[in-house]
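seq:
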Amino acid sequence: MKIPVLRPAVNDERGNSRMTAVWQRLSRYWSVIRIERAPRQLHVRETLQIGEKRQLLVVDVGERQLLIGAAGNCLTMLAELDGPSKSETDGCA
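struct:
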């Protein structure tokens, strides 16, 4: 296996460095690649500080709504809540 040798950037006759040429090639390659991300399923709806390094979080996970307790580096699911009605999420009365 050949190990590539890194050489300092050298300008060609047009004043472009080798790194510029490599970057241009990579940019063309990456512009062809399309990565589609799935819509996010996790959303922190609300947080409440209840002490030093302690908080409650209401988290939407897909169609579920969870009450999470966080203390230091520990997370605990405290309850599954009834989700908001459709009218509440739309902003209607």
